[in-house]
Amino acid sequence: MTADTGFGYYIVQELRVKSSRLISAGAEAPRFYGGCYKNNMPRSVQKVGLQIDAYLEVYDNASNPVLGLVDANFTKVLAFNGVPNATVVTVTEVGNGMYEATFTPGVIGSWHLLIRNAANNPRGWDETFDVTAAGPDLTTWVTDGYTYAQMLELTGAALLGKVSGGPANPIFRSMDDTANRISATCDVNGNRIVVNLTP
User: Fold this and answer.
1) Which of 62, 64, 161, 178 could form a disulfide with 173 if both were Cys (CB 3.0 to 4.6 A apart)?
2) Nearest partner of 42 among 79, 14, 17, 78, judged by Cα
Protein backbone atom coordinates (compact mmCIF):
# COMPACT_ATOMS: atom_id res chain seq x y z
CA MET A 1 0.00 0.00 0.00
CA THR A 2 1.16 3.53 -0.67
CA ALA A 3 0.31 6.72 1.17
CA ASP A 4 -1.11 9.78 -0.51
CA THR A 5 1.82 12.16 -0.79
CA GLY A 6 -0.28 15.01 -2.18
CA PHE A 7 -2.33 15.62 0.96
CA GLY A 8 -0.04 13.89 3.45
CA TYR A 9 -2.56 11.40 4.72
CA TYR A 10 -4.42 8.28 3.89
CA ILE A 11 -7.26 6.31 5.39
CA VAL A 12 -7.85 2.61 5.17
CA GLN A 13 -11.47 1.62 5.55
CA GLU A 14 -11.83 -1.81 7.13
CA LEU A 15 -14.94 -3.73 8.07
CA ARG A 16 -15.57 -6.89 10.02
CA VAL A 17 -15.33 -8.95 6.88
CA LYS A 18 -11.70 -7.79 6.67
CA SER A 19 -12.17 -5.93 3.40
CA SER A 20 -9.94 -2.88 3.12
CA ARG A 21 -9.07 -0.23 0.60
CA LEU A 22 -6.32 2.35 0.47
CA ILE A 23 -7.75 5.76 -0.18
CA SER A 24 -6.03 8.26 -2.44
CA ALA A 25 -7.02 11.88 -1.97
CA GLY A 26 -6.45 12.49 -5.65
CA ALA A 27 -9.07 9.92 -6.60
CA GLU A 28 -12.79 9.82 -5.98
CA ALA A 29 -14.08 10.42 -2.49
CA PRO A 30 -13.33 7.28 -0.48
CA ARG A 31 -16.14 4.92 0.30
CA PHE A 32 -17.18 2.42 2.91
CA TYR A 33 -17.10 -1.25 2.14
CA GLY A 34 -20.58 -2.10 3.29
CA GLY A 35 -21.43 -0.76 6.74
CA CYS A 36 -22.92 -2.96 9.36
CA TYR A 37 -22.45 -6.73 9.29
CA LYS A 38 -24.31 -7.31 12.56
CA ASN A 39 -27.38 -8.00 10.47
CA ASN A 40 -25.59 -10.54 8.26
CA MET A 41 -26.72 -8.49 5.28
CA PRO A 42 -24.86 -8.15 1.96
CA ARG A 43 -22.57 -5.17 1.44
CA SER A 44 -24.31 -1.77 1.68
CA VAL A 45 -27.77 -3.31 2.26
CA GLN A 46 -29.23 -2.78 5.73
CA LYS A 47 -32.46 -3.23 7.66
CA VAL A 48 -34.60 -0.35 8.87
CA GLY A 49 -34.46 0.25 12.62
CA LEU A 50 -31.18 -1.65 13.07
CA GLN A 51 -27.92 0.13 13.82
CA ILE A 52 -25.43 0.50 10.98
CA ASP A 53 -21.73 0.27 11.94
CA ALA A 54 -18.86 1.30 9.68
CA TYR A 55 -15.16 1.01 10.52
CA LEU A 56 -12.12 2.95 9.36
CA GLU A 57 -8.49 3.36 10.33
CA VAL A 58 -6.89 6.80 10.32
CA TYR A 59 -3.14 7.24 9.64
CA ASP A 60 -0.90 10.27 9.56
CA ASN A 61 1.59 11.08 6.79
CA ALA A 62 4.23 8.96 8.56
CA SER A 63 1.98 5.90 8.40
CA ASN A 64 1.27 6.00 12.13
CA PRO A 65 -2.25 5.33 13.43
CA VAL A 66 -3.95 8.51 14.61
CA LEU A 67 -5.09 7.96 18.19
CA GLY A 68 -7.39 9.83 20.51
CA LEU A 69 -9.85 11.37 18.06
CA VAL A 70 -13.35 11.96 19.42
CA ASP A 71 -16.73 12.45 17.84
CA ALA A 72 -16.26 16.22 17.71
CA ASN A 73 -13.18 15.77 15.48
CA PHE A 74 -15.38 14.48 12.65
CA THR A 75 -17.84 16.36 10.47
CA LYS A 76 -20.78 14.13 9.56
CA VAL A 77 -23.32 14.75 6.82
CA LEU A 78 -26.25 12.32 6.52
CA ALA A 79 -28.90 12.42 3.81
CA PHE A 80 -32.04 10.37 3.19
CA ASN A 81 -33.14 10.10 -0.46
CA GLY A 82 -30.97 13.13 -1.24
CA VAL A 83 -32.37 15.33 1.54
CA PRO A 84 -30.28 16.27 4.62
CA ASN A 85 -31.35 14.22 7.62
CA ALA A 86 -30.89 14.97 11.33
CA THR A 87 -30.42 11.36 12.46
CA VAL A 88 -27.49 11.30 14.86
CA VAL A 89 -24.22 9.80 13.61
CA THR A 90 -21.63 9.00 16.28
CA VAL A 91 -17.95 8.26 15.73
CA THR A 92 -16.03 6.52 18.50
CA GLU A 93 -12.51 5.20 18.79
CA VAL A 94 -12.20 1.43 18.83
CA GLY A 95 -8.44 1.27 19.33
CA ASN A 96 -5.08 1.55 17.58
CA GLY A 97 -6.34 4.14 15.13
CA MET A 98 -9.57 2.35 14.26
CA TYR A 99 -12.86 4.24 14.53
CA GLU A 100 -16.50 3.21 14.33
CA ALA A 101 -19.30 5.34 12.88
CA THR A 102 -22.83 4.36 13.84
CA PHE A 103 -26.37 5.50 13.08
CA THR A 104 -29.81 3.91 13.00
CA PRO A 105 -31.95 4.48 9.90
CA GLY A 106 -35.60 4.92 10.77
CA VAL A 107 -37.07 4.90 7.26
CA ILE A 108 -36.78 2.60 4.25
CA GLY A 109 -34.85 4.16 1.38
CA SER A 110 -31.41 5.38 0.32
CA TRP A 111 -29.15 6.78 3.06
CA HIS A 112 -25.91 8.56 2.20
CA LEU A 113 -23.24 9.21 4.83
CA LEU A 114 -20.24 11.52 4.39
CA ILE A 115 -17.66 11.95 7.16
CA ARG A 116 -14.64 14.24 7.19
CA ASN A 117 -11.72 14.71 9.54
CA ALA A 118 -10.11 18.08 8.88
CA ALA A 119 -6.62 17.11 10.03
CA ASN A 120 -6.30 13.67 8.44
CA ASN A 121 -9.02 13.35 5.80
CA PRO A 122 -10.46 16.73 4.75
CA ARG A 123 -11.78 15.22 1.52
CA GLY A 124 -13.90 12.78 3.51
CA TRP A 125 -15.28 9.33 2.85
CA ASP A 126 -18.80 8.33 2.00
CA GLU A 127 -21.17 5.47 1.31
CA THR A 128 -24.77 4.96 0.25
CA PHE A 129 -26.75 2.38 2.23
CA ASP A 130 -29.87 0.77 0.77
CA VAL A 131 -32.16 0.32 3.75
CA THR A 132 -34.94 -2.25 3.36
CA ALA A 133 -37.78 -3.53 5.50
CA ALA A 134 -36.87 -5.46 8.61
CA GLY A 135 -37.42 -9.22 8.54
CA PRO A 136 -39.44 -11.18 11.09
CA ASP A 137 -38.32 -11.08 14.71
CA LEU A 138 -37.16 -14.66 15.15
CA THR A 139 -37.12 -14.28 18.94
CA THR A 140 -40.93 -13.91 18.98
CA TRP A 141 -41.93 -15.70 15.77
CA VAL A 142 -44.28 -18.62 16.59
CA THR A 143 -45.68 -21.45 14.50
CA ASP A 144 -47.98 -24.15 15.86
CA GLY A 145 -47.28 -22.82 19.35
CA TYR A 146 -43.48 -23.15 19.08
CA THR A 147 -40.95 -20.36 18.77
CA TYR A 148 -38.23 -20.33 16.14
CA ALA A 149 -35.62 -21.31 18.76
CA GLN A 150 -37.77 -24.22 19.95
CA MET A 151 -38.27 -25.41 16.38
CA LEU A 152 -34.49 -25.42 15.94
CA GLU A 153 -34.06 -27.50 19.10
CA LEU A 154 -36.60 -30.05 17.93
CA THR A 155 -35.23 -30.17 14.39
CA GLY A 156 -31.69 -30.54 15.71
CA ALA A 157 -32.76 -33.47 17.88
CA ALA A 158 -34.57 -35.18 15.01
CA LEU A 159 -31.67 -34.77 12.59
CA LEU A 160 -28.58 -34.90 14.78
CA GLY A 161 -29.46 -36.24 18.22
CA LYS A 162 -29.01 -39.74 19.58
CA VAL A 163 -31.96 -42.13 19.08
CA SER A 164 -33.09 -45.03 21.25
CA GLY A 165 -36.24 -47.14 21.71
CA GLY A 166 -36.91 -47.66 18.04
CA PRO A 167 -38.83 -48.69 16.12
CA ALA A 168 -41.79 -48.95 18.51
CA ASN A 169 -40.97 -46.11 20.93
CA PRO A 170 -38.24 -43.87 19.46
CA ILE A 171 -36.70 -41.19 21.67
CA PHE A 172 -34.63 -38.38 20.14
CA ARG A 173 -32.08 -36.68 22.39
CA SER A 174 -30.99 -33.06 22.27
CA MET A 175 -27.84 -32.34 20.28
CA ASP A 176 -25.83 -31.94 23.49
CA ASP A 177 -27.37 -35.17 24.85
CA THR A 178 -28.79 -33.53 27.97
CA ALA A 179 -32.54 -34.00 27.42
CA ASN A 180 -35.17 -35.96 25.54
CA ARG A 181 -36.60 -33.64 22.89
CA ILE A 182 -38.91 -35.98 20.96
CA SER A 183 -40.55 -39.22 22.08
CA ALA A 184 -43.08 -41.17 20.06
CA THR A 185 -45.21 -44.30 20.02
CA CYS A 186 -45.44 -46.11 16.69
CA ASP A 187 -47.77 -48.81 15.39
CA VAL A 188 -46.63 -52.06 13.81
CA ASN A 189 -46.14 -50.29 10.50
CA GLY A 190 -43.83 -47.63 12.01
CA ASN A 191 -46.38 -44.85 11.81
CA ARG A 192 -46.22 -42.39 14.66
CA ILE A 193 -49.52 -42.40 16.55
CA VAL A 194 -48.38 -40.39 19.59
CA VAL A 195 -45.67 -37.71 19.62
CA ASN A 196 -44.42 -35.78 22.64
CA LEU A 197 -42.29 -32.69 21.99
CA THR A 198 -40.11 -31.15 24.71
CA PRO A 199 -38.14 -28.20 23.33
Assistant:
1) 161
2) 17
